[in-house]
Amino acid sequence: MKYLIALAAGLAPAIAAAQTERVDVLPPAQQIALAVLPAPQGFREASTVLGYRPDGQLVRLRVGDNGIICLADDPKEPRFHAACYHQSLEPFMARGREIRARYGNKRELTDSLRLIDIRAGRIRMPAHAVLYQIFAASDSVDAATATIRSPSYLDVVYMPGATTKSTGLTTDALRGTPWLMYPGKPWAHIMIVR
User: Fold this and answer.
1) Nearest-CA neighbor of 184 among 168, 160, 165?
2) Hey, how many other C-beta atoms are within 10 angstroms of the C-beta on 34?
3) pLDDT, tens digit only, all 194 positions of the chain
4) Is 82:34 a contact under the CB 8 Å cutoff?
5) Which of 80, 85, 104, 68 is nearest to 26 (CA)?
6) pTM score, two decimals?
7) Of 2, 26, 72, 153, which alpha carbon lies 20 to 30 A from 60's?
């Protein structure tokens, strides 16, 4: 714990500087149009959308009423990625974004800190929820028409505590076949490539 506190204190100035650094962002309407692409067609129009300001801050671009939150592409990332998920996953997702902003994209640290929060009751995982994602090379995105050449889709079905025995799925990532990640963990989930 002392290590994490010292690390956070040492990174604070860099984090503050990074958060005020200006980035090239799309206009809100284009961020919204691209952010909702991973969601099934019927969910897109009424979804809440989170996107970015030129100072790099994540903000709510649109308030929806269907319980789905879509996250626009982070302009600081080299590859296009948008995601849509049920609002019950937002505490888990928001905590992951917070940890990565502070400490970088370190999966083990993110998982460890979120597990501490789940066990302490600060994050409550839903019994099940779906995360829809779309990935693409940045140069394949046409923001003006909200189209993407050769996108990849990945759906994640969160099932806390699921195991290979309870799901009948392997933990091997096999193309064309759903597989289980983090079996037995509070964020166990099934990966489905569309």
Assistant:
1) 160
2) 25
3) 444 344 344 444 444 444 456 778 999 999 999 999 999 999 999 999 999 999 989 999 999 999 999 999 999 889 999 999 999 999 999 999 999 989 988 989 998 999 999 999 999 999 999 999 999 999 999 999 999 999 999 999 999 999 999 999 999 998 789 999 999 999 999 999 98
4) yes
5) 80
6) 0.83
7) 153
